[in-house]
Amino acid sequence: MHYLMTYPEGEAVLHYIQEVQKAHPGELEVVNLLESQKLMQNSVTILRRTAGVKNCPYAGRGGEVRYTPELHDEARRQVAQQSGR
User: Fold this and answer.
1) Domain of life here (predicted)?
2) pLDDT tens for residues 35-70?
3) Share of the chain residues as helix, strand and coil, in percent rounded to the nearest 5
């Protein structure tokens, strides 16, 4: 993500990420780089998830999504779970 270190809204996002790191130690790595020679987009933040890697049973090679009946069923299950049904 660009530009988080040098404006207030971005600092709020970085603060949120720090809170997530405190709540879930060891699950997320963050690298912030300040590019002081640039006037715009002068910082970059890189996030890396280090725990909880999930198998993606609905994705093929290169991340191509396979729209199978099982995927549709899983999507419906998640919608019902989120809506409290």
Assistant:
1) Bacteria
2) 888 877 789 999 988 887 667 777 777 778 889 999
3) 40, 20, 40
Closest C-alpha to 26, from 54, 52, 50: 50
Are 27 and 17 spatial neighbours (Cβ–Cβ below 8 Å)?
no
Two tokens, residue 83: 């809506």
Q: Is 72 exposed, middle or buried (0-12, 13-18, 19+ CB in 10 A)?
A: exposed
Using alpha carbons, select from 36, 32, 37, 38 the residue that is nearest to residue 4.
32
pTM for this entry: 0.57
Helix residue spans in the chain (DSSP H): 8-23, 69-83
